[in-house]
# Entry
Amino acid sequence: MIKGATVDCAQSHAPGEISLGEPDWEGEYFVGAKGNLLFFEWADGNNGGRPFSLLDATSGKQVYADSAYDPVFWDRKPDPSPFNRLRVISSPDGAITLRYLHVEVYECDLHLPTERSSCWEKIKVQAGLGNRQIPVCTVYERIHAHDGSAVAYPVEVSLRPHPTRKIIGGPVRCWPPD
# Structure
C-alpha cells in the first residue's frame, strides 16, 4: 500500500501487493511481525509443542518452521525459565535470533525402566545432545500405553544469512507423546 493512497475493496490484489499464496491456513494464525518476518503458529499444538512458521513479508516465502515447547499444554503456570516460550532476539544490525525448546518425538520410551538407558543413548546421538544427562520425564502417570517419548531441548536459531539451528545450554525435558 502506498502511504496516503486509498484502495478500493476488491477480490483481486492491488499492484505491488504481495500475496502469501494459497497455503493450507487451517489452524495457523498470524501472531506478529519482526522486521520483514511474519510469525504464524498453529492454534493447537501436538506432543507438548506448538508448531510455528516464519514467512518473509517481501517474498511471501517460508523462511523457517519448527515446533517449540509450550507450557500451556500442561495446565500449569509456566516456570520462570528463559525457555518457557519462543524468544525472538534482534541485534542492532537487524539480525534475528530465536531461542526455544525444540520439541521432537522419538520412537523409544524413556519411561520404561528396561528401555530408559538405551533409549536415551539413541536420542542423544539422533539429536546431537552430546553428554547431556538423562532428564526426569513427567506426566507418565496419566497414560497406560507407552509408545515413545516427546523430548524438548534448548536451541538457538540464527536466521541470517540462512537459518541455522544449534543446541545450546539449558533444560532438557521429556514426557509421553500425544
In short: The CA atoms of residues 113 and 119 lie 10 Å apart. The chain has one domain: 28-175. The helical segments are 116-127.
